[in-house]
Design brief:
This protein is mainly α. The chain folds into two domains: 32 residues; 43 residues. The chain has two helices and no strands. 74% of the residues lie in helices and 0% in strands.
Length: 90
């Protein structure tokens, strides 16, 4: 495949439809950019969420307890499954 060479005599044909699509794409991209910028500025003005150390510790403890309980239940289910497999293999 031959590389594309561009010089003074190179011509591009751009249809009106293609030009409209390009302009619409640029306008759309600019709109999204300005909308996101305004959303970011608005978020900067909002008060920061206040999570106290005590609240964090309580949530952490609750999550750890829940995970431990789930782990114990999974172990019990695993033991039951092993017993069932032993009974089936007999």
């Amino acid at each position: 495949m031959k590389p594309l060479e561009i010089d003074k005599s190179t011509r591009f044909n751009i249809t009106l439809e293609f030009l409209i699509v390009i302009i619409a794409g640029v306008i759309s991209t600019m709109g999204v950019y300005y909308k996101l910028s305004s959303d970011i500025e608005e978020a900067k003005q909002l008060p920061k969420p206040s999570v106290t150390k005590e609240e964090y510790e309580l949530k952490d403890q609750l999550l750890r307890t829940t995970v431990d309980n789930i782990d114990k239940k999974v172990d019990k289910i695993d033991q039951r499954l092993e017993k069932m497999e032993e009974r089936l293999m007999r």
